[in-house]
UniProtKB/TrEMBL annotation:
Entry protein name: IS1595 family transposase
PANTHER family: DDE_TNP_IS1595 DOMAIN-CONTAINING PROTEIN, SI:DKEY-17M8.2
SMART domains: DDE_Tnp_IS1595
Taxonomic path: Bacteria, Pseudomonadati, Pseudomonadota, Gammaproteobacteria, Lysobacterales
Pfam families: DDE_Tnp_IS1595, Zn_ribbon_IS1595
Start and end residues of each ISXO2-like transposase domain: 137-320
InterPro entries the UniProt entry points to: IS1016-like_transposase, Tnp_ISXO2-like, Transposase_Zn_ribbon
């Protein structure tokens, strides 16, 4: 029997390397991720790539052409960092290692930094993941599964079990407007805290392309949408599904327009079965959402809507890279981060600056070359 990829030698030997790393070696790792070499550097100001004059005490280089000084993190998301290089490597490893995410407090205890340092560091990684998500249309040769999942805003269970009147349920789920607009939670039969929590609930719609028979998903993307409805599904299908795609969904009415937008559309009735005898299911989406939800409940303990898309992109990245050996996944992450531009959303976080707006599907559609 072939060995499972999680049990391979590469997967466990990496921890030894990280534990015995020195600060000089860590700097070399970062330099080789950024420039592909440890003996030559590219000046971030003028771009000259050669061996520059080294100032060993400050761990910086002086450019031979423009005389500006730079370090290995100048011009990257970690521009102006104070963390030692070895701690950066350990934070990368801690982040990449958590199949169901990485808790800030746990990372801070492991590395010896404050939770806020870990928060900003991980926030910058997620920012990169938002921009690194592959938006090329899915479909063609392989089946695509599509489904929506609700995240955030889980209400606390009531102390006593009681039958909820029909009208209260209708107000709760937005089917009827409350008479008293100032205190709608009373008519909905909820506490004020639970009413506020519900307002933080969002829907994430995921598209998962199969990697082949019994191989799970190959490429995944997921977006925070305004609702699981026809309008959002149409926008997703027009931009992220190729017209010849074969798509499988559940029987939700939101997917009723799909048949006209893609070549083949099959549905599975979740009231009866997860997968039909012909093999129609949306199980790849359920897998992604399962890991994401385990993380929400067990590791991260909830998301704010403002950062839900960032977390979604993190789990899309984890899903897409889940079959790589740990050192390979670590290297992909490190190269991606060290060749990314400075952070827009997290630079100046310590001085009180941060991203104010919630992002979702609209943010990605605006970034596409031409929105259909
Ligand atoms: Zn220069």
């Amino acid at each position: 029997m072939t060995q499972h990829y999680l049990h391979s030698k590469e997967s466990r030997n990496f921890a030894r390397k990280i534990n015995s790393l020195t600060n000089d070696e860590a700097e070399q790792w970062l330099a080789s991720a950024r420039w592909g070499a440890t003996d030559k550097q590219g000046c971030p100001a003028c771009g000259l790539f050669r061996k520059h004059y080294r100032r060993a005490k400050t761990r910086r280089w002086r450019c031979a052409s423009c005389s500006r000084e730079f370090s290995v993190t100048s011009g990257t998301p970690f521009h102006g960092r104070k963390l030692p290089f070895v701690d950066m490597i350990r934070l990368f490893a801690a982040f990449e290692n958590g199949a169901k995410g990485q808790s800030l407090l746990e990372a801070s205890r492991r590395v010896g930094c404050t939770p806020k340092t870990a928060q900003v560091f991980f926030g910058k990684i997620r920012e990169w993941m938002v921009h690194a998500m592959d938006l090329c249309p899915l479909g063609g040769a392989f089946t695509v599964h599509m489904d929506g999942g609700y995240f955030g805003g889980k209400p606390r269970k009531p102390n006593r079990r009681a039958r909820i009147p029909r009208r209260a349920l209708e107000v709760r789920f937005g089917k009827k407007a409350p008479k008293n607009q100032n205190q709608p939670w009373i008519e909905a039969g909820m506490t004020y805290q639970n009413w506020c929590k519900r307002a933080r609930k969002r829907v994430v719609i995921s598209l998962c392309e199969s990697a082949g028979h019994r191989m799970g998903s190959g490429r995944v993307m997921a977006f925070v949408c305004s609702g699981e409805n026809e309008a959002e599904v149409t926008r997703l299908a027009k931009n992220f599904l190729s017209p010849d795609a074969r798509v499988m969904t559940d029987e939700s009415s939101a997917y009723s327009t799909l048949g006209a937008l893609v070549a083949e559309h099959y549905t599975v009735s979740h009231a009866n079965e997860f997968s039909t005898s012909e093999g129609v299911s949306d199980n790849m989406c359920e897998t992604l959402f399962s890991r994401f939800r385990r993380s929400e409940y067990g590791t991260l303990h909830g998301f704010r809507p403002k950062y839900l898309q960032d977390y979604t992109c993190e789990f899309v990245w984890r899903e897409n890279h889940r079959k790589h050996a740990q050192d390979k996944r670590f290297r992909i992450l490190m190269i991606g981060m060290m060749t990314a531009p400075t952070s827009r959303w997290w630079a100046g976080y310590w001085q009180g600056r941060c991203r104010r707006e919630e992002i979702g599907l609209d943010y990605f559609l605006a970034r596409l070359p031409s929105t259909k």
